[in-house]
Amino acid sequence: MATAAVKEHEFAWEGTDRKGERVKGKTQAANENLVKLQLRKQGINPIRVRKQLALFGKRKKAITPQDIAIFARQMATMMAAGLPLVQALEIVGRGHENPSMGELILDIKGGIESGNSFAESLAKHPVYFDDLFVNLVDAGEKSGTLETLLDKVALYKEKTEAIKKKVKKALTYPAAVIVVAFVVTGILLYFVVPQFQSLFQGFGADLPAFTQFVVGLSEFVQAYGVYMVVGIGIAFMAFFYFKKRSRKMRNFLDRLSLRLPIIGTILYKSAVARYHRTLSTMFAAGVPLVEAMDSVGRASGNIVFEQAIRQVRDQISSGTQLNWSMQQTGLFPPMAVQMVGIGEESGSLDAMCAKVAEYYEAEVDSLVDSLSSLLEPLIMSILGVLVGGLVVAMYLPIFKLGQAI
Known about the structure:
This protein is mostly helical. The protein contains 15 helices and three strands. Its main location: membrane.
């Protein structure tokens, strides 16, 4: 039965060292008695210990995948330097910039001190440490090569997070600019156009068709704008709710996303890169191929690939070669299949998969840069048409009035 993590507080202390000199500092502990015990172990005679009270409660920061990647790299570095596991966790946990991540690391340390293995302590936090992370750590502990496998985990996390950032950049940049463009247009239609509309009413002349259209659009936004905003908000909430809970919807969206122009290519190549990066890491750690495919499938980030990888696993378990099984799915590019085949024949599958991953990671990087260069003039054109069109529509009657005078 797992025990709940003990909440620790910050204490300020003063005392004397072995030479009789006064020293002071701060430390984290569950209570005052534990602080005194820690100080005595360090040869310090505590004189005064007081709990630090914050005037304003600190807002906890969320633990991000980047935090996990940094944690893996820190542990790999410290283990390679020869530090004991518990001491390394203590140093990383106490010094972490994110208090939430620091608490998580210290909780893992507590699990190890209570008799669990490192892998078992990590497995108690599945939200942050997936099966791949836990399996590799477990393999490292059993084989006595924990520092080597932690280095592989760190490299894997760094590479996968880097490619995720590139994909997010490709998706969020154009979407954010277009959203801003429509927000600006909505503000102009709701607040600015009505001012011109009251001015036009004093002209006593028919407005140009384009101006009439914009005025009519402004009246519609004023009448139904609030309902539109609420409806769009509800639609987005419903979309994300069902996307998170409905596998059928995720299947549909993942298949649709792979068919999108340019964006689909980026998502496809990033999934291929993640597949080969994960496979290389698992195989290099000595995890059996059939067993590794479960973690590989979940790490692909796309249900289409997850289903294909499950099919590959089933064929491998019946004795089929990996490259032939991949080819049968019709999902993997020929170059990747050939490289995997060469790796199987030469006994260097992990190295070949790593090369394939590096190739497609570079491809994704190049595509994201190209997409950004392509979208910048397109986005500027959209902004120009939306905002510039409204400005022209508002000043067109004034120009025509000036020509009439």
